[in-house]
Design goal:
The chain has two domains: about 190 residues, no CATH class; about 60 residues, no CATH class. About 75% of the residues lie in helices and about 0% in strands. The protein is built from 13 helices and no strands. Helix 11 runs antiparallel to helix 12. The longest helix is centred in the N-terminal third of the chain and has 30 residues.
Length: about 260
């Protein structure tokens, strides 16, 4: 066997035996149930929205962003302009810019390809788990194995359930209330992110804005809610820094 393959095989075996990888996977087990429910709902929604099985599977594997997929499906089904679809997905996924700013402190020294791969595997739940375990924002031992343990289980849970939903969309009975299961999964992720006053207030503002703008066409109330939540979050962050006597920088507030 060529030396390169032996080296890769050895590294893979060592990674699978790494206690931090197993710790990441164990921490993800409980959350993976909600992720799977969410993935199942999204898979069904893609087929009900008019996508073919092949295109739905392709979208699930490439996009790997449940919130954005669920948000754009009604827009695609109603024939919304492409710019509205793209803008909606971009607004919903803007949180990953903040995630990447935090992860840059841990993974910024890796080559571009490796950073892109880690970015593809990243998710809301893995971000919460990782930052709770490594809050200092600095690279350290065990971070990559822990991230991979959590992220790979998250990835597998999502795609197995999503593809199952795609293949069984016309078989699963509506009476099962899959939509409600998806809402519960989202609520589980949301509640785990409510860690301080700013996030609670942002939640309240976003919910109020979404209700106030509910009459807007093509679910544009979602964009209004996102914009309102981001604005109030930045205001609170700037106010806290001002009260603490620290200079406020826009780019620093965005990164945090």
């Amino acid at each position: 066997m060529p030396e390169g393959k032996i080296s890769l095989l050895t590294q893979t075996r060592a990674l699978l035996r790494d206690p931090d990888l197993r710790k990441g996977a164990r921490d993800m087990i409980g959350m993976s149930i909600g992720v799977a429910a969410w993935g199942l709902v999204t898979g069904v929604a893609m087929i009900k929205g008019g996508l073919s099985v092949g295109l739905a599977i392709f979208m699930s594997l490439v996009v790997f962003a449940g919130s954005a997929q669920l948000a754009v499906m009604p827009l695609l089904a109603t024939g919304a302009p492409l710019w509205v679809v793209w803008f909606t997905a971009a607004c919903i996924n803007v949180r990953f810019i903040i995630f990447s700013a935090v992860w840059r402190g841990h993974f910024g020294h890796f080559p571009r390809f490796k950073r892109c791969l880690l970015g593809y595997l990243s998710g809301d739940v893995t971000y919460i788990m990782f930052t709770q375990r490594y809050p200092d924002g600095k690279p350290g031992p065990g971070q990559i194995p822990y991230f991979l343990g959590a992220s790979l289980l998250n990835w597998a849970s999502w795609h197995v359930a999503s593809i199952a939903g795609i293949l069984l969309a016309n078989v699963l009975p509506v009476s099962w209330g899959l939509g409600f299961a998806g809402v519960l999964a989202l609520l589980g992720v949301l509640c785990s992110m409510l860690v301080d006053r700013a996030t609670w207030l942002a939640l309240g503002v976003a919910g109020s804005a979404a209700l106030a703008a509910y009459a807007l066409p093509m679910r544009l109330n979602v964009l209004v809610a996102i914009a309102a939540a981001m604005m109030i979050g930045l205001i609170i962050e700037a106010t806290d820094k001002a009260l603490q006597g620290k200079p406020v920088k826009v780019d620093e507030a965005l990164h945090e």
